[in-house]
Amino acid sequence: MAESDLKPEVKALVFDVFGTVVDWRNSIAREVEAVARVKGWAVDPYEFADRWRAKYQPSMEPVRRGEKPYVRLDDLHRTSLLALLEEFGLDPLPADELEHLNRAWHRLDPWPDCVPGLTRLKKRFILATMSNGNVALMVNMAKHAGLPWDTILGAEPARNYKPVPTVYLTGADWLGLRPEEVMMTAAHNGDLRAARDLGFRTAFILRPDEYGPNQTKDLKAEEAWDQVVGGMEELADRLGC
Amino acid sequence: MAESDLKPEVKALVFDVFGTVVDWRNSIAREVEAVARVKGWAVDPYEFADRWRAKYQPSMEPVRRGEKPYVRLDDLHRTSLLALLEEFGLDPLPADELEHLNRAWHRLDPWPDCVPGLTRLKKRFILATMSNGNVALMVNMAKHAGLPWDTILGAEPARNYKPVPTVYLTGADWLGLRPEEVMMTAAHNGDLRAARDLGFRTAFILRPDEYGPNQTKDLKAEEAWDQVVGGMEELADRLGC
Lengths: 241, 241
Known about the structure:
The structure is a homodimer. By secondary structure, chain A is an alpha/beta fold. Chain A is built from 12 helices and 6 strands. Chain A is about 45% helix and about 10% strand. A 6-stranded parallel sheet of chain A has the order 3-2-1-4-5-6, with helices on both faces. Chains A and B meet through helix 8 of A and helix 8 of B.
């Protein structure tokens, strides 16, 4: 679809965050490495980051299936971290150190194109997160990384996790917009598929390094998304910002 | 309380918006005047603005008392506007014109100190709205007025209206903060009283012109609030920003 067909209708861009906007893998590995140095842990910080992230999708499943009430991602991250320390055979951390490491997810660094690209996009569009991260996580990350969101939407307002429809739909509803006025922006084909099924516009951001050198998924756009770009500055170019 | 006692604990400032951050009376009167000119209405735009605003508190009461489920302020504003047109003996407006006038509340102008003051405060603190306005209203107003919020809290997340405690408490909870880490900022003593009763810090912003030349209430701080200032730049000075 040509940009000129699209532009008059889109009022807001909503963003997946982990992987799409911020580089969780290098950021978490850096924080794990710092803790490992102090504690004398013999762990590969990238393996630790990957295995922590590997618990992410399964940890949300009971909530998505309605078997457990909504709990925040901070709490799921903490449960995963405790299990991971045990799996690595590491001694439990004191509560304050555990909390500091768990909040490494609040201190993720953006991909280099994000702050300049989002700053341009913000002049024309409403920008909101549409992440499974909770509000405090998203707000603290935005302060750390300089991300210029207009507001935080996503999991916590809907008390559920993507790709459950209510997460996307609650976000559009709170903005007072129809789904077709909102562009879901993500580095993950599955996220875009769920949003498109509900009527959202879609933008795919290619992030071939999200999972490091051996990434096997989301290496290309798997459908004809409305926009397919290499980063936020290219998205700003395409949308005439 | 000295600023140095307070500063280490406060992580976020949350703001009442109508009257505290934006000048609803002059903004609404300007929009009413523009419609009146086109429609040939013989109305005093300031009287129209004041009488529209006078319906604000009563319109939220059934929700606060639990007699009606939460509906957004946009909807309450529309109901009030329809009643007002009838009270003034004016013909009903076509749907699109009614909606445009109702959304005048999305286009309120800030007091002159707000954008510079909030921009300074944002460097040190999380800034969020704690308004009875719904999310779309707050986001659109922020785009119109250039207000640099980190996120939107308040009525819609809690599905109730201030001064019901859940509105303040849901906001602090979503930020992952205890009430004493959050400073409620308002031009209204009653709003601050409700927040202080829950443990929030308080800042009173003097807005003696909110209701025009004949304002009778909130002309002074009625309690020893943590900060009492004449505007957001003075608040930034006091908090060392």
